[in-house]
Specification:
The protein is mainly alpha-helical and 176 residues long. It has helices at residues 3-13, 17-38, 42-58, 69-89, 112-123, 127-138, 143-150, 154-175. The protein is elongated and about 50 Å long. Helix 1 packs across helix 2, helix 6 crosses helix 8 (154-175) and helix 7 packs across helix 8 (154-175). The termini are far apart.
Length: 176
């Protein structure tokens, strides 16, 4: 953790509003991009971001100092986005075939334009497929963890990932 984060952390633990604002401003842009990966509606993604930062400030004492502060914040952002997704899906049931097979985790591209293009295509995926794809290919979770986080079966996670992969391939082929 850099000295600036250390000072912000100490001040945030004292509930100093100015420090909270500085911490928010430092990470909000990057964390909003994460929210948008899970929720393509910008206003809803901003709501997720706000809720997640409230959790950050309420639970700042829980941060042990192990690992980067940014990574700890990112975990809260991701979990808050997943919680928001679950709430939206409560009235809906995912009915998908239990297909086998999965893709290898997404390898980061060195070209930011290629990554941006791919992320734009991912945003077009249906909710379930987008969530599983993000958790598996971008965040690096396994199907068992995804199933637990989303309240679905491992088979459904695999099926959604397969569906996302197929839809992405179709989208990419159609854009060329």
């Amino acid at each position: 953790m850099d000295d600036n984060d250390e000072q912000l952390l100490i001040a945030c633990r004292k509930n100093e509003r100015k420090a909270q604002e500085l911490l928010y401003r430092k990470y909000a842009g990057e964390m909003l991009r994460i929210c948008l990966a899970y929720e393509p509606d910008r206003d809803a993604a901003k709501d997720i971001l706000q809720n997640a930062f409230l959790k950050v400030f309420r639970n700042i004492e829980a941060y042990s100092g192990e690992g980067a502060l940014k990574a700890w914040i990112r975990r809260i952002i991701t979990n808050t986005a997943i919680d928001a997704y679950r709430k939206r899906q409560q009235s809906q049931t995912l009915r998908l075939d239990d297909l086998q097979g999965a893709i290898e985790p997404f390898e980061e591209q060195s070209d930011p334009l290629v990554c941006q293009d791919l992320l734009r295509e991912v945003e077009k995926l249906p909710d379930g497929a987008r969530m599983v794809f993000n958790l598996y290919a971008i965040e690096g979770y396994g199907h068992k963890e995804i199933a637990e986080k989303l309240g679905i079966s491992e088979g459904t996670s695999k099926s959604q990932l397969n569906r996302a992969r197929k839809l992405l391939n179709e989208q990419i082929m159609n854009s060329n």
